[in-house]
Design a protein that fits this description.
Elements lengths: L2 E6 L11 H22 L3 H5 L2 E4 L8 E6 L7 E13 L2 E12 L5 H18 L2 E3 L5 E3 L5
Antiparallel strand pairs: 1-5, 1-6, 2-3, 3-4, 4-5, 6-7
Helix pairs in contact: 1-3
């Protein structure tokens, strides 16, 4: 498998758990925002800002979907999934939900750039903790 980035939903996040439908809704909101920007600029910005088609396989069982690039030379695939992991804090077990973004091994530089952009957008929207592909962490929630 390729590289993975994670958006972890922390107690300070806007939501504590996420479904695939919620994630798709955020992606559609992103597409809508960029198309409105394009209309203001009188330019087809939406096609450049989101050069993908959303594809969901029947075997994904509501846990993942992928974005298929419209121009295979520049963009191939980005995979999005949702899940949860068990954490133990102060002797108490809790579930921490997350969004996983995967770049397949044959992904392009364009895919990585767009994946980073989508990750930052989603982390900002959900006020989550973003673990980037390179291992660095960005905090989009108020820290004490």
């Amino acid at each position: 498998m390729g590289q993975s980035a994670f958006i972890k939903l922390v107690p300070e996040s806007t939501v504590q758990q996420i479904t695939l439908k919620d994630l798709k809704d955020k992606i559609h909101h992103y597409i809508d925002m960029t198309s409105k920007t394009g209309k203001q600029l009188s330019w087809g910005y939406a096609d450049m800002a989101f050069p993908y088609t959303i594809v969901e396989k029947t075997e994904s069982e509501g846990t993942w979907f992928y974005l298929k690039g419209n121009d295979p030379k520049l963009y191939k695939y980005i995979i999005f999934g949702v899940g949860a992991q068990e954490l133990e804090e102060a002797g108490e077990k809790k579930q921490q939900h997350f969004i996983q973004v995967v770049l397949p091994e044959d992904g392009t530089h364009g895919d990585k750039g767009k994946a980073n952009e989508f990750c930052k957008y989603l982390a900002k929207e959900y006020k989550g903790e973003l673990h980037l592909f390179n291992g660095r962490v960005m905090y989009y929630y108020p820290r004490k």
